[in-house]
Amino acid sequence: MAAVPAASDALAVDIRDLDVSFATDGGDVHAVRGVTLDVRRGEVLAIVGESGSGKTVTARTILGLLPETARMGGAVVLDGTNVVGLDKKELREIRGTKAAMIFQEPSTALNPVFTVGWQLAEGLRAHGKYTKAQARKRAIEMLKRVGIPDAEHRVDDYPHQFSGGQKQRIVIATALALDPTVIVADEPTTALDVTVQAEILELLRRLRDEDGTAIVLITHNMGVVADLADRVAVMLDGEIVETAPVKELFAAPTHEYTRKLLAAVPRLEISDRQLPEGAAAAEPVVVAQDLVIEYAGRFRRAAFRAVDKVSFTIAPGEVLGLVGESGSGKTTIGRAIAGLTPVAGGSLRVLGTEMLGVKEREFKRKRKELGFVFQDPATSFNPLLTIAQNVAEPLIVHTGVRDISAAQSKVDELLEAVQLPKAFGERFPHELSGGQRQRASLARALALDPKLLIADEPTSALDVSVQARVLELFRELQEQFGFATLFITHDLAVVDLLAHTIVVLHNGEIAETGPTAKVLGNPQDPYTKRLIASLPVPDPVEQAARRAVWDATRED
Amino acid sequence: MAKSHSSKPRLLDRLPVVHQLRQSVGLQRGMLVAGLILAAIFLILAIFAPWLSPYGYAQLRGPDGLFGAQQPPSPEHLLGTTVGGYDVLSRTIWGAQTAFLVIIVALVLSVFIGILLGLVSGYLGGWLDRVLVVIADAIYAFPTLLLAIVAAIAISGGQSGLWPGIMAAAVSITVVFIPQYFRVVRSEVVRVKAEAFVESAKVIGASTWRIMFVHVLRNSTRSLPLIVTLNASEAIAILAALGFLGFGIEPTAAAEWGYDLNKSIGDVSAGIWWTAIPPGVAIVLAILGMTLIGEGLNDLADPRLRARRRAGKQTPADAVAASQPITREFMGEVE
After folding, report:
1. For domain A8-98+183-194+217-265, which CATH number applies: 3.40.50.720, 3.90.640.10, 3.40.50.300, 2.130.10.10?
2. Tens of pLDDT along A523-543?
3. If you write DSSP's letter for every residue of B247-308 in order, what string do you get?
């Protein structure tokens, strides 16, 4: 962390006793209560907390970006101006020049029908007079500064011609266009792959160092905090419970909640896990041999090959971690095993059924031996059925149980197994929190005592402390029931907690496969190495050392 | 959406229009209330027409003999009589009943057929979907009124009694409306079909019919109350247009506003105001009432358009609500 300049004492943002409440259909909600914060120039302040802690609302007040239903109290002094109580015109003058924002999802933050050059110039035109040529020149400069290669030509490209990481760079360029005092970055890397995330973090760090821009970083990822932040504010239920320099916070958290939060973050510990005895000898539950899955192309274009010649097996009771970045084909493989996506070539045997050219009628009998946990627990339940009805669905379909009352005892048993109170069965899905829903989802997947469970990113939509509990529960259930599992995830630390074997996918092909300890502890493939090096660890000192390693792998 | 905040709301609060009425504030509430009042007046006139109207819709003579044509308003005939010698007030009140029956029959026919076709077409897809969409588009391409006229002629031969007349009007309106319900339900079904809970039902191994009716259908009908109210107003307009053009119901079979308007054309130039204005105002107010309800529901269904009471100063009761951590739904979206 030697590169951190002495943060100048001038305050970029000074938030005092901020109160925000919203009028909602369910009455007023007091989202932020008495928050006092300050950000100095050239400093990265991270605001961490779980969803609903008020971190986004707090940061958005800096730009006055709150819905009309909000009522604010207190003061937010941005570079000498109190933002609270400004009218629309005054706010407009501040936005862009004094404060700018980087959004979570770069693909929606850019307008798809305009060139990126036009969008960069738009911010300039809003705050001054520029000729076309001047604006274009400035846009090219900005693109170069955020590391877009060949900026002279690419300035005329449209957003869809850029990759996700490049799009986020362009969003950062638009935020920088007028040299704002402070940039609010709301989960700037959450939508990005871990290797791209590392590059974006590097870019943000450079901006802080070179321009002395203050950055307010909102994130739930403690690894990102350790990597980038100088100071950290921890929020809980609309209040700040702790503010400390990053090293102090990680080394000696004072508040109990901070300690809990840090303890819940999964770390790469490289554990060696043994397969259950006899599993290797038994007939595998899933055998993939040169598996090929293609998506049909449009209008005579060639089909897109999402999975190319992938071979692996899953033994009974084995947990196979399928790891890869977006577009690597990991979800496609999971869907093919569940019969949701057709297999185009090679061979895939699931529970003894060949999936190449399988008919739904033949596979339907096998479905009761297969459970599926979806990524987003919010959408994987029918919102109009109660939790009990949803969990009973597989029983009704397969075991001849006519209705929910006949399945009640089994449903209660399942809810108990996933540590949900029986009474939760009466509730509707939206009345449960994300973690509770995901546990109910697990209960539904286990309803018929399956031999194989497919879990597609089951914890990526959850807060970190909730994720820890769900993963713990999952491990207990797996050990108790002994079902084989295909665990699909992008998070290496999560597979490390659970998997016996890891398959690393890269662009539809297997980059590396082997026992967990070997793949994570001694990776052979350059891609695996880069993946592991990109993963920020929740420890600022260790992360600084890892960053040096990452810099080295990047040269490859 | 009523279910979002407490686990077991009273049934009254979950009824479509009642729930929205409770939720609304300010101008939106005013519009909705105005619409509901107009619709209620329309409904009362339709149901109690036999008791409310001084004479029958086809009555030409009272105890003192014939009413006489084009009589100005008088104590016997509060709104005068028409060129055909009918009592204007009575025909206007009875007209509400005809319009009401037509709306009910037209909506029942088109809602069920439209939803079923939309569900099957959207969920199963394939050639069936393509054929149905092309047919719906083709029907859309016709001018609405022309289509209704053709249907009316085909069904009744152009003139008829009460029920054949109502059926003719209703069916011709149905033909126009089915594609609307079909389209709306189909697009919702296509959206819902891609949701994870439908995939999850597939993974479980539920049959296609079970998925369609248990999981997809109930999640695809959110916007129907809105379209029903808007279509009800359109049904009144089409019925009136059919009657005005002479394809409606005979005056001896039922009272019908469009027919009366048609017959009053000549009166307007003769300075006789009382034959044209009452049925015209009735049409305008009935349509206005339905449209206000529809627009009100539309605004309230969209969290971005819905007005809310401003967050006020804290009271002890608010403090309880405030102790709940705010969720991602802070923008107002609760579903």
Report:
1. 3.40.50.300
2. 888 888 888 888 888 888 888
3. -S--TTT---HHHHHHHTHHHHHTT--TTTHHHHHHHHHHHHHHHHHHHHHHHHHSTTT---
